[in-house]
Amino acid sequence: MINKVVKNVEEALKGVKSGMTFMLGGFGLCGIPENSINQLVSLGITDLTCISNNAGVDDFGLGLLLQKRQIKKMISSYVGENDEFERQMLSGELDVELIPQGTLAERCRATGAGIPAFYTPAGYGTEVANGKETREFNGKMYVLEHAFKPSFAFVKAWKGDTAGNLIFKGTARNFNPMMAMAGKITVAEVEELVTAGELDPNQIHTPGIFVQRIFQGKDYEKRIEQRTVTSKS
Questions:
Q1: pTM for this one?
Q2: C-alpha–C-alpha distance, residues 229 and 233, integer Å
Q3: Class of domain 9-115+149-216
Q4: For 124-183, how does the pLDDT look when each residue is reduced to its tens digit (9 = 90+)?
Q5: Domain segments of the chain as ranges
Q6: Dist. CA 110–CA 146, nearest whole Å
């Protein structure tokens, strides 16, 4: 029987080191690999390039790595909720590559599919296209975008089994399946870990072939990024 379970986050992150490029699933604070991020902070590795839709908030998610100055470069789509990110970017301490969200998703997908590059109309005529090859197709201009080269991908799922099959819950799926396909080593942390065969095959979002290590996470905070309420009249 295939068994990809590791006993804890420490074992799951064996082999990570300074200077590596990581993919981290999540959208806002939804579906982020909290345990893996906390372990990266504890390891103290530096000069990291992190590919993620956003950079968490000041005291949570990737914001914790930013506080410790462990990230050298962020490749992201949206970073508006992190004051420390803004400070480091404006001061020149942090290298930042901002990407249209659809382009970020497609670059992740292309990485997992073995596609080295693709053309997209998104960003043509803007700063996004600076220094990139452009080409006309059927009277419309396109920008050449390249796949990523991550060493590890860290994803978080709702349920997983010992063979590495994953199910994501609701919008917490977001970038996780695409990034799970793309890592040379994909580490999945799950809220519930079951024996292979217990998950409905028709409900699996990421097949276990894309996952090299899986463990059951703990102490998930389930934060709400922005809470809006109405006052009683």
A1: 0.93
A2: 12
A3: alpha beta
A4: 999 999 999 999 999 999 999 999 999 999 999 999 999 999 999 999 999 999 999 999
A5: 9-115+149-216
A6: 8
